[in-house]
Amino acid sequence: MARETAYSCSECGLQSAQWHGQCPGCNAWNTLIEERLPAAGARSQGRGRRRVGGEGAAAHGGARNGRARRPALAARPLREVGAAPLQRMSTGIGELDRVLGGGLVPGSLVLLGGSPGIGKSTLTNMALGHLQEAGHRTLYVSGEESAEQVRLRAERLGQGALKVPILAETDLDTVLDTIAAEGPAACVIDSVQTLNSGELSGAPGSVGQVREVAGQIMELAKSRGTAVILVGHVTKEGALAGPRVLEHLVDCVLQFEGERERPYRELRALKNRFGSTNEAGLFEMRQGGLVEVLDASARFVAEATRAPGSVVLAAMEGSRPLLVEVQALVAPSELEQPRRVVSGLDRNRLALVLAILGRHGRIGTGGSDVFVNVVGGVRVDEPGCDLAVALAVASASRGVALNGTPRACFGELGLTGELRWVGHPERRLEEAAKHGCAEVIAPVDSGAGACEAATLRDALTLALPTGSRRLTQAVA
Ligand code: TYD
Ligand code: MG
Q: Out of 269, 278, 358, 449, which residue is the most buried by the measure of CB atoms under 10 Å away?
């Protein structure tokens, strides 16, 4: 077959028959991507991947020579559009179902990203195992590992996982033919970067290849109602390797994160056409695969050290409250630019909190290294964490434990030192009370049971023991 490909620039859209390292149009480097040119004639033979059916088919009929104008269509109000309720398939893993918005939607394309060794293959294999046991047809396409290697993993995951049919293959056409022949209800491609289409010359995993692979799989999946999970690698910077284009193409982007050395893993939705992106699921990697962590708050509170520099944060993980321990260490620095090291939080957020703490709380950290860590390898991505960071740093800086620990807190800090209201105070307070944190420092209007503070100064007064407070005021 003649190669009908061209190179187009992902920045300015310039098309070129040849590849250039630097785009002749906009001078950007490494932006030319090989793409298949739209076919001149009919290419509808083969697997019947072009979608046919409904009103669309009639409108397209006979107008494929590109000249004939299509008749105008009548637009309808949305309420008259018949939409069948989504029939979701449960993956048998509660946390995964919740993050997906209630289960896998037939015909949907899910992209699961995560760094190597985090547990993507384990999670998808377990999900397919449960689906297979529930009577759905499944298919696991492994481009990365041999069938034997996948089997060895499945042996650790139990009987269900061993029933999943596997195809160890990297050629896109073979994979598409197999999906068409097997007709699975759910299919995993592990990973999308390893498949390659013979029609493009780029190496597997290059942007053009990945886009082509994902595009063709999507066409097939949508036409057959197959739910597909594409596993994708993540670069050191945390972005999906190569193609951001994939994020636009798929219905749902899930990110599996955590530290490989730690047992906890978090699953988050970054995009979801069929559910909320606020949800997060917590797992623990054990001998027999991933186990859902349902009592995370109890564990983190029980493990909290109650030492200077430790504070419990009543955070929200999507719609679910979660208590986590935030720890800080403040130590004199020998560097001209003292270190600011965070894990589990946004680095810029720490810089902001330290500035507010210095200006409005009179606790300066200018000459010290500051380390802040959310214990357990969990990531907290919400504004409510500000106060916990501030109190942990204040407590570490003064070298005194907070009053009446375990005590929890939450709240966002404003630039003028005020403590701002954050979402779901009642759920946070309830969770804190349930796990023995009787006193919770919270913004005004958080509801009954909170020790309310209007400003950072008020919160410090409530949290720090009297002696150390005097010290603070003396410095002021
Ligand atoms: P894997 O799913 O292969 O990660 P990924 O596909 O994201 O690269 O699993 C990664 C790690 O999980 C591996 O180092 C071994 C560990 N593991 C367990 O601890 N217990 C288990 O039951 C399994 C299957 C894996
Ligand atoms: Mg893997």
A: 269
Positive or negative, the Cα torsion across 465, 466, 468, 474?
positive
C-alpha dist (Å) from residue 57 to 54, 61, 380: 6, 6, 48
Find out whether the beta carbon of 258 lies less than 6 Å from any atom of ligand 1.
no
User: Which pair of tokens denotes residue 176?
Assistant: 């598409």
pLDDT recorded at residue 202: 77
Question: How far apart, in whole angstroms, are the C-alpha atoms of residue 374 and residue 311?
Answer: 10
Q: Within 13 Å of residue 99, how many CA atoms lie on the same side as its CB? A: 26
User: Which of 141-145, 294-298, 311-315 is least confident?
Assistant: 294-298
What ranges do the domains of the chain cover? Answer: 1-37, 87-294, 297-475
Is CATH 3.40.50.300 correct for 87-294? yes
CA angle 258, 126, 183 (to 5 degrees): 125
What is the phi/psi pair of residue 133, to 5°? -65, -25
Give the C-alpha separation, 102 to 252, whole Å.
13
Dihedral (CA of 17, 19, 24, 26) sign:
positive
Share of the chain above pLDDT 90, in %: 54
Measure 95 CA to ligand 1 centroid, in angstroms: 18
Whole-angstrom distance, CA of residue 378 vs CA of residue 266: 7
Rounded CA-CA distance 111/422 in Å is 31
pLDDT in tens, 41-87: 444 444 444 443 444 444 444 444 556 788 898 898 988 887 777 78
Instruction: Return the percentage of the chain with pLDDT > 70, whole number.
Output: 88
pLDDT of residue 67: 61
Choosing from 255, 256, 266, 285 the residue with most ligand 1 atoms within 8 A of its CB, the one to mutate for a pocket test is 285
pLDDT at 44 (0 to 100): 44
Q: Looking at residues 130-134, what average pLDDT do you find?
A: 96
Transcribe 249-293 into DSSP letters: HSSEEEEEEE-TTSSEEEEEEEEETTS-S--EEEEEEETTEEEE-
Name the phi and psi angles at 72, rounded to 5: -65, 145
For the Cβ of 110 lying below 6 angstroms from any atom of ligand 1, the answer is: no
Q: Which residue has the tokens 């289409």?
A: 197
Determine the Cα–Cα distance for residues 21 and 293; give it in Å rounded to an integer: 48
Please report the atom of ligand 1 found closest to the CA of residue 114: 7
Q: Show the tokens assigned to 226.
A: 């197959």
pLDDT, one tens digit per residue, over 369-419 is 999 999 877 888 889 999 999 999 999 999 999 887 668 999 999 999 999
CATH architecture of the domain with range 297-475:
2-Layer Sandwich (3.30)
* Alpha helix positions (H), 26-163: 54-60, 94-100, 120-133, 147-157, 159-162
